[in-house]
Specification:
Length: about 120
């Protein structure tokens, strides 16, 4: 059992930045990949970024160069630094973790970017 809690969402104007945080608790040992997904209204949930326990990262093309994912294994935390935000980034952002081939999800945090 892994619990993921996100924080850091909010309302910002285009061009501004936000930093999302996610802290895992419970059975956090053996967590390998962590990451972020997002879901906009009337859209499917999409992968934003992932990071392995070894630090290998992957990004969705539309956020590449603007978003940076990082993690602190000692704190069981993963972060998403979002810069140059665009209205199209507006969505609920969900923290993700994989442990022993099983996925876990946070409840989501709303990010709204106004033009």
């Amino acid at each position: 059992q892994v619990q993921l809690v996100e924080s850091g969402g909010g309302l910002v104007q285009a061009g501004e930045s936000l930093r999302l945080s996610c802290v895992a608790s419970g059975s956090t040992f053996s967590i390998d990949t962590m990451g972020w997904y997002r879901q906009a209204p009337a859209k499917q949930r999409e992968l934003v970024a992932t990071i392995t326990s070894g630090g290998r990262t992957s990004y969705e093309d539309s956020v590449k160069g603007r978003f940076t994912i990082s993690r602190d294994n000692a704190k069981n935390a993963v972060y998403l630094q979002m810069a140059s935000l665009k209205p199209e980034d507006t969505a609920v952002y969900y923290c993700y973790a994989k442990r022993v081939y099983r996925p876990y999800w946070g409840q989501g945090t709303q990010v709204t970017v106004s033009s």
